[in-house]
Design a protein that fits this description.
This protein is of the alpha+beta class. The chain is about 25% helix and about 25% strand. It has 3 domains: about 1-75, Beta Barrel (OB fold (Dihydrolipoamide Acetyltransferase, E2P)), CATH 2.40.50; about 120-155, E3-binding domain (Dihydrolipoamide Transferase, Irregular); about 195-405, Chloramphenicol acetyltransferase-like domain (Chloramphenicol Acetyltransferase).
C-alpha cells in the first residue's frame, strides 16, 4: 500500500513551507519516525519524520514551496526491507552510459599568426609583472605585434581594470526563513515610527559579583552566571515601571501585558532565531541562565519549535558577542521595543570626581514612538542602567546569597 505523506501544519497562520533539504533519496528504504526532510517555514526549520516504514518516492524537489496538506512523498509500506541493510538506503542500479558514435569533423584551419603576436620580450614581461598587468591587456607595437619594453612601460591599468585574481560569483536561493526575515525587517522600517535612544553602563559591579560567585554558582546549578540573567531581570524591573514598553499596537488599540515574556536573539545555523523566556518575572538568576542555555542549544541544533519563538513581549539582542560597539537594533514585530547589548570595553570615566578606567558597555533601546514617548523610552533605559550598576540593591534585594540561591 502506498501511504501519502502530507505536509503537517508547523503552527498557526503558516500555510506554506519550503523543502529545504531531502535527507533521503528517491527509492530509499526508510523506517518509521526517521527524519526524511528539512522544511523551512517563515519562522523556523523543522524536520519531517517518516510516518511508516517502506520504500519512499519523492514528489517534490528541494527548493519547492508546498502548501500545508500537500503530498510530498509516497511510502510503499508493502516493500520488503533490504537484506542486511538495516536502515541503509536501497542500492541504486548504476546507470549504464550509452556509447555514442564519434563523428569525425574536419578540422578548422587555425588563424595564421606569427610567433611574436601577443608575446612580450623578457624585459617587457618583467615590467608587466611588476605592474600586475597581463600581456593580453597590452597592444604590442613591435614587429608582428610583439610587446616591447616601451609598450610595457607605457601600459597603465585603469582603476576599473580587473586584476589577475579570481573574479567568480555564485547565486543561491534565499531560504523561506531568510526571505520572511527580510520582509519583516523592511515592514518594521516602513510601518513603525522607530527611534533609538542610547546610554552607557558601568559593568564593574557585575564584574565584581561574577568574580566572587560564578564558580560556586556554576558548581551548584550547572550553568554559568552570565550577563544575560542580569540584563533580563533588569529589563523585567524596567518593564514593570514603564508598561507602555511592554505593549503592542493592534489596529487602533494598544495591548498591554501584565507579564514579561522576554525574547532572546540567538544566532542559529539557519539564521537569527528569537526563542522566548516565558514569564521571566517569575524566574531567579538560576532560572534565567538555565532557560537561556536550554533555548540557545535547541536553536543552534535546529530543534527549536515555532511555539518556542512565538509570543514574546520584549526582545534583548547581544551584538557584543560579535564585537559590536554600538548599533540601532530593529524592533521584533509585533513588539514595540528591543534592547541592544554591545561589547564591553575599558574606557576612562569620572567616578566620585576621579578619572578611572572602567568596563563600559553601550546599550541601545529602539522603540515604536507611536505608543512609547521619549520620556518613557529614556526612563526605561535609565532604569535598566541603574539596576545593572546597582544589582545588589535593585535586583537582589540586598541578599546576594538568596538571589543566587547559594
Amino acid at each position: 500500500m502506498a501511504l501519502e505523506m502530507k505536509v503537517p501544519s508547523p503552527g498557526e497562520s503558516i500555510t506554506e513551507v519550503e523543502i529545504a533539504q531531502w535527507l533521503v533519496e528517491d527509492g530509499d528504504y526508510v523506517t518509521k519516525d526517521q527524519a526524511i526532510a528539512e522544511v523551512d517555514s517563515d519562522k523556523a526549520t523543522l524536520e519531517l519524520p517518516a510516518e511508516e516504514s517502506g520504500i519512499i518516492t519523492l514528489k517534490a524537489e528541494e527548493g519547492d514551496a508546498v502548501a500545508v496538506g500537500q503530498v510530498v512523498c509516497l511510502i510503499d509500506t508493502d516493500a520488503a526491507k533490504p537484506e542486511g541493510g538495516g536502515d541503509e538506503p536501497v542500492e541504486k542500479t548504476p546507470k549504464v552510459e550509452e556509447k555514442k558514435a564519434v563523428v569525425a569533423t574536419p578540422a578548422t584551419p587555425a588563424k595564421t599568426e606569427t610567433y611574436a603576436t601577443g608575446t612580450a620580450s623578457p624585459a617587457a614581461k618583467k615590467v608587466l609583472a611588476e605592474k600586475g598587468i597581463n600581456t593580453s591587456q597590452v597592444q604590442g607595437t613591435g614587429r608582428d605585434g610583439r610587446i616591447t619594453k616601451e609598450d610595457a612601460i607605457k601600459a597603465t591599468p585603469s582603476m576599473g581594470t580587473p586584476g589577475p585574481g579570481q573574479r567568480g560569483e555564485s547565486r543561491s536561493k534565499l531560504s523561506m526563513l531568510r526571505r520572511k526575515v527580510a520582509e519583516r525587517l523592511v515592514s518594521v522600517k516602513n510601518e513603525t515610527a522607530m527611534l533609538t535612544t542610547f546610554n552607557e553602563v558601568d559593568m564593574q559591579p557585575i564584574f565584581d559579583l561574577r568574580k566572587q560567585y560564578k564558580e560556586n554558582f556554576k558548581s551548584k546549578h550547572g550553568v554559568g552566571l552570565g550577563f544575560m540573567s542580569f540584563f533580563t531581570l533588569a529589563c523585567v524591573r524596567a518593564l514593570k515601571m514603564y508598561p507602555s514598553v511592554n505593549s503592542m499596537i493592534d489596529g487602533k488599540e494598544m495591548i498591554s501585558y501584565d507579564f514579561q515574556d522576554i525574547s532572546i536573539a540567538v544566532s542559529g545555523p539557519k539564521g537569527l532565531m528569537v526563542p522566548v523566556i516565558r514569564n521571566a518575572e517569575n524566574l531567579s538568576f538560576r532560572g534565567v541562565e538555565s532557560e537561556v542555555k536550554r533555548l540557545a542549544i535547541r536553536a543552534r541544533e535546529g530543534q527549536i519549535t515555532v511555539d518556542e519563538m512565538t509570543g514574546g513581549t520584549f526582545t534583548i539582542t547581544n551584538g557584543g558577542v560579535f564585537g559590536s560597539m554600538l548599533s540601532t537594533p530593529i524592533i521584533n514585530p509585533p513588539q514595540s521595543a528591543i534592547l541592544g547589548m554591545h561589547n564591553i570595553v575599558e574606557r576612562p570615566i569620572v567616578r566620585e570626581g576621579q578619572i578611572v578606567v572602567a568596563p563600559i558597555m553601550y546599550v541601545a533601546l529602539s522603540y515604536d514612538h507611536r505608543i512609547i514617548d521619549g520620556k518613557e523610552s529614556v526612563g526605561f533605559l535609565v532604569a535598566v542602567k541603574e539596576a545593572l550598576e546597582n544589582p545588589e540593591e535593585l535586583l537582589m534585594n540586598n541578599n546576594i546569597n538568596k538571589a543566587l540561591e547559594m
